Amino acid sequence: MDLSSSSIRSGEGVLLRPWQPMDTDALYGAVDVSRAQLMQWLPWCSDAYCRADTVAWIDFCRASWAQQREFPMGVFDAVSGEVLGGIGINHLDRANRRGAMGYWVATPRSGQGIARRAARLAADFAFADLQLNRIEIVILPDNIASRRVAQALSARWECDARERIVHHGEARSASIYSLLRADFAAPQT
């Protein structure tokens, strides 16, 4: 699947597409301005995060797409092209037709429904293009905003799994939500 510069999905003012080298500065800027918020929830974000990490991330993303291992995407304003955040379908288990979804939104744009809209588009991509039956969303229990996004997708809370993830070196419990193809209503375009 060579979708190196193609739009994967767009609707409701957002566009999803694979990260490209031309996105490096805008992505780094979005992470940098959001650093304090992102560090609370995402283990890859730290005080040490730098532009070189962004370059390495984009290289990883391009290789992942080329090898169809996982599908990290930028979330962009459909009109201006502004980087609004990131989203991805990863941890693929092709034999069981399942994967996971993760998402974040730049702090200046949080609270505007961007994650909800992007997650709906990414779920449509996962179900229609990747032929998955199940998407899991793994969330730190106190991340209320991410829980609301999962709930807005009609994902169902399944459990709080003990020591499910390691976050900044510490084993933490996580809330597991699942979204099934049968429960998902594709976005209207």
Specify the overall morphology.
Answer: globular
- Helix fraction, binned, reads 25-40%
**Largest pleated sheet:** 8 strands, mixed
Q: Approximately what portion of the residues adopt beta-strand conformation? A: 25-35%
- Classified in CATH, the superfamily is Gcn5-related N-acetyltransferase (GNAT)
**What would you report as the Rg, rounded to the nearest angstrom?**
15 Å
Topology-level CATH name: Aminopeptidase
Poorly predicted parts: none
| Total DSSP E strands | 8
The CATH class, by name, is Alpha Beta
Could you give the order of the helices and strands? Answer: EEHHEEEHEHEE
From the helix content, strand content and strand pairing, which structural class follows? alpha+beta
CATH architecture: 3-Layer(aba) Sandwich
Mean pLDDT: 91
Keywords: Transferase
Protein name: RimJ/RimL family protein N-acetyltransferase
InterPro entries: Acyl_CoA_acyltransferase (IPR016181), GNAT_dom (IPR000182), Ribosomal_N-acetyltransferase (IPR051908)
Domain N-acetyltransferase: 28-189
